[in-house]
Amino acid sequence: MAVGVFDSGLGGLTVLNAVSKRLPDVPFAYFADSAHAPYGVRDADDVYNLTCKATERLWDEGCDLVILACNTASAAALRRMQESWIPKDKRVLGVFVPLIEALTERQWGDNSPPREVAVKHVALFATPATVSSRAFQRELAFRAIGVDVEAQACGGLVDAIEEGDMILAEALVRSHVDALKRKMPNPEAAILGCTHYPLMQEIFQDALGPQVAVYSQANLVADSLADYLERHPNMHGAGENSCFLTTGDPAKVSRHATQFLKRKIDFAKA
Q1: What's the structural domain count of the chain?
Q2: What are the DSSP E strand ranges found in 166-252?
Q3: Residue 70 annotated to the active site
């Protein structure tokens, strides 16, 4: 009954932590493609090919359902995967859905025409690849009208977080928020469109100000996954064991992951 969780690096551990707490009886297989991280500076074809390869590895672990806990993969690869690549007995889900559900206060299955929502000015902080894909704006437009989205590509932030350099990470957050505010002085809401960014949520909130509602993904994804598995119990895969896999150096990745989650994590070579 294992579920796969994929990220290019360690950011998806924020999602893994939340889904594990929400679904304590479900084993999760986590795959970090650390050898090719970060994805946020790669082109769409590269992201697609790497994401497909990682997904197949999680299927090998008995995970019929895989969560792309990577916004870049969700933005640049997921739609293409769903349209032409994923077998009928497998599912791959992204992390945009719960965010848009929360922002628009409507369920994903609600196919009524787009309507006005309370929030009109939204700041999106994401990787360069996610920003250039415009996937968030496209999905949002299916459900809401009259929402102005200003995107800020947060170059360097994932690398700083992966390396555990939180002083640099904080400086980058504040710099990117300043750049966003020059384009949109008064955002009402901010989307942290990368699963690494929840680790910096307090800094984002401080830099944006208390009047801005900051949405991050981990708990939203956990609630959405619990609902999905309740509605689709057949998507519990055959895998029975939790595991941590990486294409990088397992010792180095384990050390950074332990620092990342503040508990011991042991990765094996994928």
Answers
A1: 2
A2: 189-193, 213-215, 243-246
A3: yes
